[in-house]
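tool_call: predict_structure(chain=1)
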Amino acid sequence: MLPPRRALRPAATYRYPEHLREQIAAAPKAPGVYLFHGDDDSLPLYIGKSVDIRARLLAHLRSAEEARLLRQTRRIEHIRTGGEIGALLLESRLIKERQPLYNKRLRRQRTLCSIRLADGRPEIVEALAPGPGQTLYGLFASRRAAGERLLAIADRQQLCHTLLGLERPRPGRACFRAQIGKCRGACIGRESREEHAARLLGALAEQAIAAWPYPGPVALHERSGEFEDYHVVDRWHFLGTCASLAEARRAPAWQPRPFDADSYQILLRPILGGGAAIVPLFRADSPHTP
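tool_result:
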């Protein structure tokens, strides 16, 4: 992301460099992604997105830091999309692929971890789109971060570290936390294992990765003027964007991409909240279950 913006002094004004003005004027007032290129054209300086590319480019003159970025820019490239969802998905993918200098938040494809319950006991696993009948909790940057979340839940809920796999069991003896009043005693029968598991599940529930709500792949349809996009998604795996419904119907046969947490976060609201036109790509007799 860009450096933090500082408040402008009343007398401070910034103007677009002369060599960029024609490029700004040619930018569309439409959704899409834009790239600032410097002297080394192989590596973008910055990649951004907007529902109005031209207006967003003009807004880059709000601080000294952004004005400095523009002085380093030699060329502005823009790519139209059919709407805001497409702009968000394309921005996320291009930042990971092109590694622009000033974007930090989305620069690297992260291998994230989640928490899974097996017989009531938590396991830390690689974050994946949950399969049928499976529930995963949280998207964590590392196994350590997932473990720290479990520790925080244990403190808040007075859970047993032994049953959570965080402390080696000592047969017939209470765990250390039970001895100091920070565990309700599931390790020595003061609380049932079922009650302990239910409290753990309740604490994790708000972080559950959403179940895929369809029996197969769908396309999210967006249109802006003459630009039309079909974003194909199957079990939260974003497969790609197509220019026509006929092409979208072939997309589920493409090689699936790895589960990407950023794409999941982008798609979550439009798919579950009804904020997008959704076209089913599965057969009515599909054997899959949501």
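agent: DSSP finds nine helices and ten strands in the chain. Proceeding to next step.
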